Amino acid sequence: MNSLLASNEGFLFRNLVRTTYIYISIPLYFGWCALKIFRFQRSLKDNFSNSDKIHFNWMLFLMAGILVIWSVVIITKNEELITKAIAIFLILLGYFGITQVDVFSKRTPQSALVEEVKPKYVNSGLDNLEIDRLHQALIRLLQTEKPYLNPELTLQHLASMIDAQVHHLSQVINEKEQKNFYDLINGWRIEEFLKEVKSEKNKKYTLLAIAYDCGFNSKASFNRNFKKYTGKTPTEYLNKYI
């Protein structure tokens, strides 16, 4: 009898430990995933020149969906409710999978992205002479080939055009221009827009059409960057200065 009681107590204890582990580990795992997503999202402007269509809210929604399903399984154990929750989750998974921009394409692998959360330029190996050389090559490229006109321009693509490593180019931009890749490229786009909008050949086009030709991919992105760069909306600026 004593051995049976001891066996039952051991079973109950192991079951309690296992249940406690499940209750604690899953929320901690989701919290860790959410933190990684937020950190990665902060690094987008160091790698992409147009980030309006790139976001990870859909991943947070899907994680929340999994958490809801887990809660239903743990709390209710209602098979019908669990089935409905899974069906809704799969529908949302398909929708977000179709509509989300392909961030991790072959042209911009995750390993090439510059993550803001890591200590920047530790042991980068660049001396001041090399930094100046890369900066001059960058400015010359922007002036002559105008890669910023490509709305899909990325840091990796730009680095390949001057035969530089991605993290080296990021360091050059941050240290010499005192801004991130996103602000640098969109600043050049605004300057191109201000030049093109004065041209007689463009009088027949709308401001948005000219903005698209200068590398912007949405009205919201153009207006936001224009206001940030000039301190005025496009209409206010043009009425005052042009």
UniProtKB/TrEMBL annotation:
This is AraC-like DNA-binding protein. The keyword Iron does not apply. Keywords: DNA-binding, Membrane, Transcription, Transcription regulation, Transmembrane, Transmembrane helix. One of its GO terms (molecular function) is DNA-binding transcription factor activity. PANTHER family: ARAC-FAMILY TRANSCRIPTIONAL REGULATOR. InterPro entries: Homeodomain-like_sf (IPR009057), HTH_AraC (IPR018060), Tscrpt_reg_AraC-type_HTH (IPR020449). Residues 132-240 form the HTH araC/xylS-type domain. The keyword Transmembrane applies. The chain crosses the membrane at residues 20-38, 58-75, 81-98. SUPFAM superfamilies: Homeodomain-like. The lineage of its organism: Bacteria, Pseudomonadati, Bacteroidota, Cytophagia, Cytophagales.
